[in-house]
Write a structure and sequence with these properties.
The chain is an all-alpha fold. The protein is built from 16 helices and no strands. It has one domain. 78% of the residues lie in helices and 0% in strands. The two termini are 15 Å apart.
Length: 316
Amino acid sequence: MSLLSPAARAQLQIHFCVLLWGFTAIFGKLITLAALPLVWWRMLLVVAALVLIPRTWRGLRAMPPRLALAYAGIGVLVSLHWLTFYGAIKLANASVGATCMALATPLTALIEPKLARRRFSARELFLGIAVLPGVALVVGGVPASMRLGIAVGALSALLVAIFGSLNKRLVEHADPLAVTGLELGAGTLTLTVLAPLMPLLFPAFAGSPFVLPDTHDALLLLGLSLACTLLPFTLSLVALRQMSAFAAQLAINLEPVYAIALAIVLLGEQRELTPMFYLGVAIILGAVLVHPLISRARRISQPEVLGTAEAKRAAE
């Protein structure tokens, strides 16, 4: 019998995912490919790995067509999120691109109750809004030349709030490996269709996905795809079965902390940032740490909820 409750295990899983995702911004800066081919190769390599796993095929065969179509639609949003995320990194830097994801927290507080069909929480909205001063300081702590990157990062945050809430709604209906393969497969097809249009729509993201990367980029893409995409993406779907999309997104706000620390060590990005930037990150981190304390206090103050939950587990 596990010593950890399902909720505690989900928290550990999502924080492990966040640690791995902290490296994605670093990979995005080190890989020389433009945003579109970078994301295209990232998704394609993950799908290729999943194709080799029999469990993926079993999960796909068991999935109703309507549900498969819904997951494919989410995959389109995932591809656009990653495209804009790496676009923000290319237009600004790894630290800024990762920090923009904090905007997804207040957006998730508003969007998840609608899409995941759960009760609206004013507490979650308050905590989501609490990160906004931190984001404002981050914006004020970067050069004007990076502001476009922040705008693109904000769009990326909106997309992650939408697809995270949709995944929460549907996550219990199919095998996580099959869901990952289907979503990222649909995302790969989406970017394949967009590739010829990108020079007209957004030249900064453009690049042919059909050109083989050189050895340097290929090795980095393998690390990005397997260690920082396949493992955490699938594990996060498992964790979502025991936590809300908002709680997961709030934990993901720690990603900039890891990304900034790595960017300072590996990329020397501290030369591009001001004390305002780091104060903003501290505010975001404070909101992340306060959330579990408030949630724990609420559970203790409502023992009847605990009793009902324990009785339900015993019955099962």
